[in-house]
Design goal:
This protein is mainly α and 139 residues long. The chain is built from five helices and no strands. Helix 2 packs antiparallel against helix 3 and helix 2 packs antiparallel against helix 5. 62% of the residues lie in helices and 0% in strands. It has one domain.
């Protein structure tokens, strides 16, 4: 369940950051405000202000082709969303709803609940990847 939750938080953060740079910005802002008002109403206005600052950052990053800055923003919002869910695990369905209701990712990539796994190896390296449970036995 932990990896499923991590994938959900990753997808949500990517969706939010991507949505910041689209015409769906107001939908992103509204949805995030609703989440925070339910769990931490005293922090909602601050989070919305920080979301606006992050939007400026992502717009500049995209204009400059700075993918690293955008990845860092996704990481920042992953942390925030993970903390939000830790404070109120009942918000998991709400986070799923947020993902479903927000505009599509800007790169045209379909949103699914499944993570995208990528690995680069060299030499005698070994990589084992799974989108879900995995059992490895030495044989």
């Amino acid at each position: 369940m932990e990896s499923e939750l991590a994938a959900l938080v990753n997808l949500a953060a990517s969706t939010v950051v991507s949505g910041m740079a689209t015409a769906g910005w107001e939908s992103v802002r509204r949805a995030m405000g609703e989440l925070w008002r339910r769990v931490h109403p005293e922090r909602a206005d601050t989070v919305l202000a920080e979301l606006g600052e992050a939007r400026t950052e992502v717009l500049v990053a995209r204009r400059n082709g700075d993918e690293r800055a955008e990845r860092e923003l996704v990481g920042e919002w992953q942390t925030r969303l993970r903390r939000l869910l830790a404070a109120d695990p009942e918000m998991v369905p709400e986070l799923r709803r947020l993902i479903d209701e927000l505009p599509p990712l800007s790169d045209g990539e379909p949103r699914t609940g499944s993570p995208r796994l990528t690995a680069n190896v060299s030499g005698r390296s070994r990589v084992t990847m799974a989108g879900r449970d995995i059992n490895i036995t030495k044989g």
